[in-house]
Write a structure and sequence with these properties.
This protein has 324 residues and is of the alpha+beta class. The chain contains 14 helices and eight strands. Strand 4 and strand 5 form a beta hairpin. Helix 1 packs across helix 3 and helix 7 packs antiparallel against helix 8.
Length: 324
């Protein structure tokens, strides 16, 4: 008989670092965005369960000086995701249930005019008990902090769901290291300026592609057009198309400096100092902490959003161990 435990064990055997299960109905009732619901029912109404898997990004990449190392490793992790999810889907079908996977990084450009997929795999992983959202809206796990990726498998199998975490995994405003480290100041109070983030994380992404084409098309002289063609951005775009490096991938700064996760022991020495830290960012972090302590309204935590941040707030590890 197919059980949730068997599915999770199979996922681990196939190479997933973390595996969790949530009910499709839970996501249908609690979409991340009420205006543009990213829910399983819009993909296949017959799906009953979602299997979320997480793979960590090896910490060594965040000790490198070049972002290209992280970008490349990101892609290797995502490819592994696809392979593992595909094999879990096959396993579920061998056991008598329909199943298929989402793309590890799926984007539907007509949805909210940005990098959003038909499902938010971060929110699926949270509903499956694998973590909570961080201050900068990355998925945060106790094991790997934000240094991980997730995807999910949809299935008609009715599997027992895991309990969602109610404790906040992210330390939050009193830490604010992601805020300090962000080179484009994209980290908001439980939010992210995605356009600002993309200027660094996707140095040779679609926005860069449009800009170099625009420069070529609007050039008034042949000499100006040739200068536009010889722009080194073209090399970056070509490399991005070939190897994805620079075209997609996280700016590693918020991931590298986050102290949450068992793997941070390999980073604490080299990431202790944050060169991007400024008095203005420190002041912003302190202001956020005061706002939270005063119980004032925070846009990033308003309405249903607290569900994925952690309703019970943050508890230090020592206090957590004592209570348990």
């Amino acid at each position: 008989m197919l059980t949730a435990e068997k599915v999770k064990q199979k996922g681990k055997e196939l190479g997933a670092d973390l595996v969790g299960i949530c009910s499709a109905q839970t996501i249908n009732k609690n979409p991340p965005d009420l205006k543009v619901p990213q829910i399983p029912a819009n993909i296949s109404p017959e799906m009953k369960s979602l299997v979320a898997i997480v793979k960590r990004i090896p910490a060594g990449a965040f000790r490198a000086k070049s972002m290209a190392c992280v970008h490349h490793l990101d892609q290797l992790v995502l490819r592994e995701h696809d392979k593992i999810a595909y094999r879990i889907a096959r396993y579920l079908e061998q056991e008598g249930s329909y199943a298929f996977q989402t793309a590890a990084q799926e984007t539907s450009w007509e949805m909210k005019h940005g990098s959003y997929g038909y499902l938010s795999t971060r929110h699926v992983a949270i509903e499956a008990g694998l973590g909570t959202l961080g201050l900068e809206l990355n998925l945060m796990t106790r094991e790997f902090g934000p240094r991980c990726y997730t995807t999910c498998i949809l299935t008609t199998a009715e599997l027992e769901p895991d309990a969602k975490m109610t404790e906040q995994v992210c330390i939050g405003e009193t830490c604010s290291r992601c805020l300090y480290a962000c080179p484009s100041s994209a980290v908001l109070h439980w939010g992210i300026d995605k356009r600002a983030c993309a200027t660094v994380a996707q140095e040779f992404g679609v926005a860069s592609l449009f800009k170099v084409f625009e420069r070529f098309i609007t050039a008034e002289t042949t000499d100006d057009r040739m200068k536009a063609v010889r722009n080194l951005k073209w090399f970056g775009i070509w490399q991005g198309l070939l190897r994805v490096v620079g075209a997609f991938g996280d700016c590693p700064r918020c991931l590298a400096v986050c102290p949450v996760g068992d793997d941070y022991q390999y980073l604490s020495e080299v990431q202790r100092e944050i060169p991007e830290k400024t008095p203005e960012k420190v002041a912003a972090g302190k202001g956020w902490a005061r706002t939270r302590k005063a119980g004032e309204e925070i846009v990033g935590m308003s309405g249903h959003r607290l569900r994925w941040i952690g309703e019970d707030g943050y508890k230090p590890p020592k206090k957590r161990k004592v209570e348990r």
